[in-house]
Write a structure and sequence with these properties.
heterodimer; A: alpha/beta; Aspartate Aminotransferase, domain 2; Aspartate Aminotransferase, domain 1; seven-stranded mixed beta sheet; four-stranded antiparallel beta sheet; 15 helices; 17 strands; B: alpha+beta; Sufe protein. Chain: A; four-stranded mixed beta sheet; 6 helices; pyridoxal phosphate binding (chain A); Cysteine desulfurase (chain A); Aminotrans_V_dom (chain A); EC 2.8.1.7 (chain A); Cysteine_dSase (chain A)
Chain lengths: 428, 154
């Protein structure tokens, strides 16, 4: 991290006359920052309740990316020229913003990947192939997204590691003990979600990390659903690795974040080979750079990382505690309203839950529900949510899922409820 | 909006969706295939008993799915009984046309009564992401008669 980058990181994306968010949480002011929300679909006002799949982007993020391309874009860490230096400063400033966002110790612990999926694959491939061997166990939970299952299965094929899966109960709750009980002398990694994308369950990560560390086992946390909903402090959690998806945090697609504790990253070999990650190459041998650059082969997602920096600024301006409180209010309201509908069953009623509500109905399949809600302007996800083992646990092939972001309102929950009554009318 | 939705979810479809005909495995089944829609996780199994003369003596199905995919499988199994494999394939081609095109042209020699019955499912034309729900059963039937065990609408 250079000094110019630090100075830029301290300067938040400036608010201009057109900006609506100025500290105090006001959902209408937040909504005004999201251009895409202000439209009708099929003649109905759009109610976007699919932020767990991907969130919408505020103008501040779109503007920061436009500004990068229009005024200082160049490749990073390459040129001696002015644009390259300026662009590198902004790119590294984004890394510093991520460090602060996660409360990591240093910016060198933040690796930019192409997505959260790549971040998990990086750990499975790099850490896994160097430190794990046949018979070693990877501890997962039943609620993992496919992105935190399949990379470990690929590693299983290559090294012979085994997967151990911690159960959840009928409410979608998970007990820390059930994960901890699986940790034993053969455990090589605990890889768990922070918040289930299909059920909304918040996993007691801190307790699990403490037990894993006592056994000398590193922990990777999939924070894709947590980063947008709750304040995350990797040092407080103690996580060795923490991955999240900027596009679910009101930032762009095409960039992902992997936090890795520095000593862990330093012990790991490169994931991909190419430019940027080497210090010296001859045809006999290459020397690799230190983290994070060791893991950033090739030209990175430069402007996307800068857009992520702007998204973090935005989220921090709105206030992470305020966002968590807004989410909790919406979750409580949606849970109450949906529970009043006869024949509708919420799947996942964990004690500690984020603003994600999965449900099935007695009258119609999730896909039919999704189609009818869509025509009523309500965008939800219908399907298995890339979490088929979670669906299997409940004997389901799919659910409909409403997920909430900073811009959602109680009126949109009402629109969802009205549309569900229409589903019942058609199928009832 | 309600009109358009009622057009998609006509009574016949809702009825077949709730009370599927020919549900289960079939006696003397000699062709079977699994159909899978990875987008929603729905699965269908089609069972056929095809005689040496190429006539489909029995057709049944099992599986989980939305109203459209279950109704489509239910109606297909009713229609296929007594048809030759060749006729079944012609119907598949015709059905696929009517689910995807506004001005679908029917291939020559296709059973017109069957086409008329299947029209009820052609409302999926206006709901592009649901076309695969309607055609999954037919793709699976096609896989079964060609000796493929599995088909995915990916």
């Amino acid at each position: 991290m250079n000094d110019a980058g630090n100075a830029l990181a301290d300067k938040q994306t400036p608010l201009s006359a057109g900006d609506n968010v100025r500290g105090a949480f006001d959902v209408e002011a937040v909504r005004a920052d999201f251009p895409v929300l202000h439209q009708e679909v099929y003649g109905k006002p759009l109610a976007y309740l699919d932020s767990a799949a991907s969130s919408q982007k505020p103008r501040q993020v779109i503007r920061a990316m436009d500004e990068a391309y229009e005024t200082y874009y160049s490749n990073v860490h390459r040129g001696l020229h002015y644009l390259s230096q300026t662009c590198t400063d902004h790119f590294e400033a984004a890394r510093e913003k991520v460090r602060r966002f996660l409360n990591a110790e240093k910016a060198e612990e933040i690796v930019f990947t192409r997505g959260a999926t790549e971040a998990i694959n990086l750990v499975a491939a790099s850490y896994g192939r160097k430190f794990l061997k046949a018979g070693d166990e990877i501890v997962l939970t039943t609620m993992e997204h496919h992105a935190n299952i399949v990379p470990w299965q690929l590693l299983r094929e290559q090294t012979g590691v085994e997967l151990k899966v911690a159960p959840i109960d009928d409410n979608g709750d998970i007990r820390a003990e059930d994960v901890i009980d699986l940790i034993g002398p053969k455990t090589g990694m605990v890889a768990i979600t922070h918040i289930s994308n299909a059920l909304g369950t918040v996993v007691p990560v801190k307790q699990i990390v403490a037990a894993a560390h006592e056994a000398g086992v590193p922990v990777l946390v999939d924070g894709c659903q947590a980063a947008p909903h709750i304040p995350v402090d990797v040092r407080d959690l103690g996580a060795d690795f923490y991955a999240f998806a900027p596009h679910k945090l009101y930032g762009p697609t095409g960039v992902g974040v992997l936090y890795g504790r520095y000593d862990r990253l330093e012990s790991m070999p490169p994931y991909q080979g190419g430019g940027e990650m080497i210090s010296r190459v001859t045809f006999e041998k290459s020397n690799f750079k230190k983290p994070p650059h060791r893991f950033e082969a090739g030209t990175p997602s430069i402007v996307e990382a800068i857009g992520l920096g702007a998204a973090i600024d935005y989220v921090e301006t709105v206030g992470r505690e305020a966002i968590a409180a807004h989410d909790a209010r919406l979750l409580a309201y949606a849970t109450r309203r949906l529970s009043e509908i006869e024949g509708l069953h919420i799947v996942g009623q964990a004690t500690d839950k984020a603003a994600i509500v999965s449900f099935v109905t007695d009258w119609a399949h999730a896909h039919d529900v999704g189609t009818i809600l869509d025509r009523a302007g309500v965008a939800v996800r219908a399907g298995h949510h890339c979490a088929q083992p979670t669906m299997d646990r409940f004997g389901l092939s799919s659910t409909a899922r409403a997920s909430f972001g900073i811009y959602n309102t109680e009126a949109e929950v009402d629109q969802l409820v009205d549309a569900l009554h229409m589903v019942r009318e058609i199928f009832g | 909006m309600m009109d358009e939705l009622r057009e998609l979810y006509q009574e016949v479809i809702l009825d077949h969706g709730k009370h599927p005909r020919n549900f289960g495995s079939c006696e003397g089944c000699n062709h079977t295939a699994h159909g899978f829609n990875p987008m929603c996780g729905d699965t269908l199994i089609i069972y056929l008993n095809v005689g040496e003369d190429g006539i489909i003596k029995d057709a049944t199905f099992k599986g989980k799915g939305c109203a459209i995919s279950v109704a489509s499988a239910s109606m297909m199994t009713e229609i296929l009984k007594g048809k030759t494999v060749k006729e079944a394939e012609r119907l598949f081609a015709a059905f696929h046309e009517m689910c995807t095109k506004d001005d679908a042209e029917m291939p020559e020699g296709v059973d017109e009564d069957a086409i008329e019955r299947l029209q009820v499912l052609s409302g999926v034309r206006d709901f592009p992401v649901r076309v695969k729900c309607a055609t999954l059963a037919w793709h699976t039937m096609d896989a079964a008669v060609h000796g493929k065990d599995e088909i995915s609408t990916e």
